[in-house]
Amino acid sequence: MRHATWIVLVAVLAGCGGQSAPPPAATASYLTAEPIPPEIATLIEQGDLDGALAKADQLISQKPGDAMLYSIRSSIQHRRSRTDLAIADLDKAIELNGKDARLYNNRGFVLMGTQQFTAAMSDFDKATELAPEYSNPYNNRGLLLIARGQYASAIEQLDKALALNPNYVDAYNNRGFAAFQSGNTERALADFNNAITINPKYVNAFNNRGLLRARVGDLDNAIVDFTEAMMLDPMNPKYYEHRSEIYRRTSQTKSALADEEKHDWLLRLQDLTAAIQAKPTNANLLVERARHHKSVDGTAKAMDDVQAALKLDPKSTDALLLRGRLHLVWNDFKSALSDADAAVAIAPSQEGYSLRGDACMGLKDYDKAIENYVESRRIDSAVAEAYYRKSQILQASGQADAASNVLQQAVALDPEVEDRLR
């Protein structure tokens, strides 16, 4: 398990939007100057950032003087972790429309993410100058000051954000963080509670409140908060890490180990996903992630990855064999046999014959199953069952001697096969 400094709260980098974004707010709260065109919004919702970027490029080529389109493209680049291109687009948007406070706020937000704090603060100042009633730059100023460790000043800015927008959930969460770092756990707890009251699905506030409760020794309620965070955001490994630490402190070793295993599994999934994003045409990486999903019964996601791998490389025996195994899980024995046949035709292997044997077992073709198990050199309970089932068929057809011989082979592989299957 990879350990981080777990007792530090996470300041949520949110607050670029006109309203607080739904949780988790750390990655999606990026405001453009105008509503995003539906054709781009749909692609973003589908996770097709490349398609969204291509559409934005097309619209910009048609309307090169539209500041809003550059702002929209900057948000897509920001999602793609191309902060340099996001900043360049915001530069162009501001050049075209230097009176829009939101553009300065957005650019400051991106600059802050790259630790260009002086330039970011300048943009937040400009945003408040242009629109004094605009709450988001005050929140982002607070975040910047938190990053500098200036918690008292951060709280002042977050107070202003909340005075302008009393339901600003991100500002409550961030002010709670600053208060906690200042040692004011009472005020921090009140702010996290307010954030959760405003948005009962605000995952970051549950996580932060759990960390605060862990710090002050309220361990049972800390576990409740981390569990709630997991339910809201089940693919985030940090909540499992936090909860496992509490389980360790309360001598719940088995539960701690389970959380640590899940934490490590999620980290590995993140690594594989990052590798696939870096090399989207690499079929082997997709197969590896499919195996990872299958290891925790994620067969549907595993199948998605395998199908994608086979589109890239239709002759990938690894993908064919894994798809065959997934078909077995779903009792689709004909499809499993088809995949096994295809894999063996490309490159005969023990694994291919083994899969074919299992598919034949599912189809109750015990002779073929045994034939393939022999080729795969398997000697386990599944092979014993194939011999046992064949012996039953022989016995039923009146071939007692042959049945006895086959049964002996079954018992040699698994002495308990008769008791297990009778």
Structure notes:
The protein is mainly α and 422 residues long. Among the domains are: 38-250, Serine Threonine Protein Phosphatase 5, Tetratricopeptide repeat, CATH 1.25.40.10; 379-422, no CATH class. It has helices spanning 38-45, 49-62, 67-79, 83-96, 101-113, 117-130, 136-147, 151-164, 169-181, 185-198, 203-216, 219-232, 237-249, 253-278, 283-294, 299-312, 317-329, 333-346, 350-362, 366-376, 381-396, 400-413, 417-421. Helix 1 packs antiparallel against helix 2 (49-62), helix 7 runs antiparallel to helix 8 (151-164) and helix 15 (283-294) packs antiparallel against helix 16. The protein is elongated and about 95 Å long.
Write the topology of this structure:
Elements: H1 38-45, H2 49-62, H3 67-79, H4 83-96, H5 101-113, H6 117-130, H7 136-147, H8 151-164, H9 169-181, H10 185-198, H11 203-216, H12 219-232, H13 237-249, H14 253-278, H15 283-294, H16 299-312, H17 317-329, H18 333-346, H19 350-362, H20 366-376, H21 381-396, H22 400-413, H23 417-421
Helix pairs in contact: 1-2, 2-3, 3-4, 4-5, 5-6, 5-7, 6-7, 7-8, 7-9, 8-9, 9-10, 9-11, 10-11, 11-12, 12-13, 13-14, 14-15, 15-16, 15-17, 16-17, 17-18, 17-19, 18-19, 19-20, 20-21, 21-22
CATH topology of the domain at 38-250: Serine Threonine Protein Phosphatase 5, Tetratricopeptide repeat
Oligomer: single chain
Cα-to-Cα separation, first versus last residue: 44 Å
The CATH class of the domain at 38-250 turns out to be Mainly Alpha
Q: How many helices in DSSP terms?
A: 23
Structural class, please? mainly alpha
Provide mean pLDDT, rounded: 90
Low-confidence stretches: 2-33
CATH architecture of the domain at 38-250: Alpha Horseshoe
* Radius of gyration of CA atoms, rounded to a whole number: 29 Å
Would you identify the CATH H-level superfamily of the domain at 38-250? Tetratricopeptide repeat domain
Instruction: Kindly state the percentage of residues in helix.
Output: over 70%
Order of helices and strands: HHHHHHHHHHHHHHHHHHHHHHH
Give the tally of β-strands.
0
Kindly estimate the percentage of residues that lie in beta strands according to DSSP: under 5%
